[in-house]
Amino acid sequence: MALTDDERYDVTVVGAGAAGLACTADLTAAGLRVRLLEADGTVGGRMRTDRVAGFTVDRGFQVFNTSYPQVKRRLDLRALRLRPFTPGVLVHTDDGMMRFTDPSRRFRESRDLLPGRLASGRDLLALGAMTAHDVLAPAARLRSRPDGTTLTALAEAGVSPELVETFFRPFLSGVFLEDDLETSARFFHLVWRSMLRGTLCLPAGGIGAVPAQLASALPPDVLRTGSPVATLAPEGVTLSDGAEVRSPTVVVATGQRAAAELLPGLAVPRGRTVTTLYHAAAHPPLAEPVLVIDSRRRFLNSCVLTAVHPHYSPDGRALVSTSVLGTPDAQAVAAVVRALGEVYETDTGAWELVHQVTVHDALPAMPGPHPLSQTTRVSPGRYVCGDHRATGSLQGALASGTRAAREVLADVRRGAGR
Question: Could you tell me how many helices (H) and strands (E) the chain has, helices first?
Answer without folding.
Answer: 13, 21
